[in-house]
Automatic annotation (TrEMBL):
This is DUF2291 family protein. The chain crosses the membrane at residues 7-24. Keywords: Membrane, Transmembrane, Transmembrane helix. InterPro entries: TM0957-like_sf, UCP033535_lipo. Pfam families: DUF2291. Gene3D superfamilies: Envelope glycoprotein gp160, DUF2291, alpha/beta domain (2.40.50.420), Envelope glycoprotein gp160, DUF2291, helical domain (1.10.10.1260).
Length: 207
């Protein structure tokens, strides 16, 4: 009888020990924890556009064109940003300009500091990684997968295409004086500074 009681007590101790060793969580709690680990590119892009683009350092567009024209390769390597091994360098530019014409995919502006210098402000076919890479807002080394990193560009371009461009096009007309800040890229193997195209982050009227 004593042996039986002893075995029963031992069994109870083992069961209690095993029970306490197991950590139980509700499915809802587990799901919330997993969701917290999922990167949200849309929120990341919205935060950048709402809180960081105004203070983003930029190169004066006129100065950029003048200096790049002297030695585009050297200038790009010293002042541009690029990802990986390629010939594309990205820049954040800003400037004051006068609207010359409104085309299907771009608004053509003339830089106020030099009436010989013209720039295209992109209003359609907005894609690529120029904003993400020129702003250096994200480091690919901090992301678990390239999809999350690439989705940042997708969401940034969506905001430009759906928010910044429509309100600008609704109002803009030839002769308007504007301030712009945006991202551009140049290929040092095939540079064409006369066709410089800027994806806008900020567009303000100075009329």
């Amino acid at each position: 009888m004593k042996k039986i009681i002893k075995y029963i007590i031992l069994a109870v101790v083992v069961i209690v020990s095993l029970y306490n060793a197991v950590y139980f969580e509700s499915l809802d709690k587990i799901k919330k924890g997993q969701d917290a680990l999922v990167f949200n590119a849309k929120e990341f892009a919205n935060d950048f556009m709402s809180n960081k683009k105004e203070s983003l350092p930029a190169i004066n567009a006129n100065q950029f064109l003048l200096e790049a024209a002297k030695d585009v390769k050297s200038y790009a390597e010293q002042n541009g940003k690029k990802l990986g091994i390629n010939n594309d360098y990205n820049f954040i530019l800003e400037g004051n300009a006068t609207v010359l014409s409104i085309e299907e995919e771009n608004v053509i502006v003339q830089l106020n500091e030099d009436n010989e210098q013209k720039v295209k402000i992109a209003t359609d076919f907005i894609f690529g990684n120029a904003i993400r890479d020129a702003s250096a807002l994200a480091d690919i080394g901090t992301f678990q997968n390239t999809m999350d990193f690439n989705n940042i560009s997708v969401e940034l371009n969506n905001i430009v295409r759906e928010t910044i461009v429509p309100s600008f096009l609704k109002t803009v007309k030839e002769g308007d004086v504007i301030y712009f800040k945006g991202a551009t890229k140049i290929n040092i193997k095939k540079p064409d500074l006369k066709e410089l195209r800027v994806i806008p982050l900020i567009l303000k009227f100075n009329n």
